[in-house]
Amino acid sequence: MSTTLTGAPTARTAPRRMTRGLTWLVLRQHRVTLLCLLALTVLGSLWILYQRAQLTDLLDAAGWPGKTPQQPVVGQGYSRLTTLLGLLPGILAVFFGAPLIAADQEQGTAQLVTTQSVTRRRWLVAKLGWCFLAVLVASVTLSAIFTWWWRPHRSVLGDSWYDASVFDTTGPVLPALALFLTAAGVTIGVLLRRVLASMVATFVFCVAAKVAWSVLRDHLAASRTLTYPLNGAPPARLDGAYELDSWIGSADGHLYGWGSCAKATEKAADACISEKGIVNNVVQYLGYDQMSAMQWTGAGILLAATAALVAFVLWRGSRRPF
Fold it and tell me: pTM above 0.70?
């Protein structure tokens, strides 16, 4: 008795993954970090939405914008939120960027992977690509939602637009800072090759970078100068402006510091003002309308520095074994 096959044999196939090969390996290796970053983004976004809803209810009850609150409406939740957003780039740099390559170098994973069929450059591109994509998505999401909250309510929140708590956490600055510091952490990790040493060095670098950034912020746009009468009220143009410096000046344009005529008596002060011919207040300032241009200029500088760091890591990785 013979048996006849009526159909072609079928091979048992495994279910296909959404990601394959090197991408799957990188995502699996960093799945805990990526899940933590996702949770941070979701919880942070929900917290911002909750704080905004609370503020909106409070202002509606007070009759805003018809009635402006006498004092800035700022609670502990807002202060904590801006603090955490300001710390986010450094946290990503220390706990995500610094160990990204250094951990693989220290444990020997990098040497194992790159001695297989995967080139060092391809492995680095996969690692850096997913790292920076995750950082970009998280920081852009949080920055966009916080900007959506802050911009229409800036007059009642108390913080100046120039303060680091606002300038560095709204618009393109937060993503640019996060990418730059993360790239710096990766670079430090590649050079030091040890996780703990890289994290400590990255933390020190973040502190120094924040100080340097606060100095650079003053030079992201050309300052403006406004002159008005000595005893006159400040013009409306100065509302919301950030004052860089101020002087008192004579009619011929000579400037004096505010303490030049600080005398023991009012009569002596008036005599000093009359003797020097002081008739004007002179203010050097940056306007709120310059904020957007300043942020994009600063973000461009940070992104250029990020590109330089990434190029260095790829160059070093392709020329020297791990």
Answer: yes
